[in-house]
Design a protein that fits this description.
This protein has nine helices and six strands, in the order E-H-H-H-H-H-E-H-E-H-E-H-E-H-E. It has about 220 residues and is an alpha/beta fold. A six-stranded parallel beta sheet has the order 3-2-1-4-5-6. The longest helix has 20 residues. The mean pLDDT is about 95.
């Protein structure tokens, strides 16, 4: 048995536009300078309070960052409806998930900086059935290995038989810290060079290339 743990934002779904607009409105509400799109993409994958603090150059989360996090969460569904935005799948993701979801030797899970509610929305929108998952509501922020370790414990599959698939340097760092294999995806929000520098064992340039790692 193997365990495939997928990051969500930037790996399965293209959510950068939605995240950025919600972040932009949050920063505006608190009288902050409007963040650049590049700044938003750089923090995708982190837990939200840490991401907001980091976007302002803070080394630690402060009370205002917690307040901004709460406001962001209150806005997210509103922005999603305003934009009629359903976090579309990247090209080839549906076919890749369908190809591996019926295999008896493979379990599919999710490890994401999204909230539990956010992951549920994506799963319901696209019909994903994650056997196991960990979110920002459950564990410390990536790159802490807890998300992976807890998924391994829950399924009984050891880290050596687990593959983390993600687009962020935090996904690669998390996988290696947990003792799992790390596959970086080239269609997400970090560069291939950044993924390799942070521990990627392989790079997938198209979702169908992920399949070879489960043969």
């Amino acid at each position: 048995m193997k365990l495939a743990l997928f990051d969500c934002d930037g790996t399965l779904v293209d959510s950068a536009g939605l995240i950025h607009e919600t972040m932009r409105r949050t920063f505006e509400k608190f009288g902050k300078a409007e963040p650049r799109f590049e700044d938003t993409k750089a923090i995708i994958g982190l837990s939200l309070d840490i991401a907001i603090a980091r976007m302002q150059g803070k080394p630690h989360v402060e009370q205002q960052d917690i307040d901004m996090t709460a406001h962001y969460k209150s806005l997210f569904s509103v922005v999603r409806q305003d934009l009629d935005y359903r976090e579309p799948l990247f090209a080839g993701i549906r076919e890749m998930i369908d190809a591996i979801s019926g295999r008896e030797d493979l379990l599919i899970g999710a490890v994401t900086g999204k909230s539990r509610r956010g992951l549920k929305l994506v799963a319901e929108t696209h019909g994903f059935n994650f056997i196991v998952s960990r979110t920002a509501d459950d564990c410390p922020s990536k790159p802490h290995p807890a998300m992976v370790s807890e998924c391994c414990d829950e399924t009984g599959i050891v880290a050596a038989d687990t593959i983390v698939i993600g687009d962020a340097i935090y996904d690669m760092q998390m996988a290696k810290a947990a003792g799992a294999k790390a596959i970086g995806v080239a269609w997400g929000y970090a560069s291939v060079d950044e993924l390799i520098a942070n521990g990627a064992d392989a790079i997938a340039y198209h979702p169908n290339e992920i399949l070879r790692h489960f043969s």
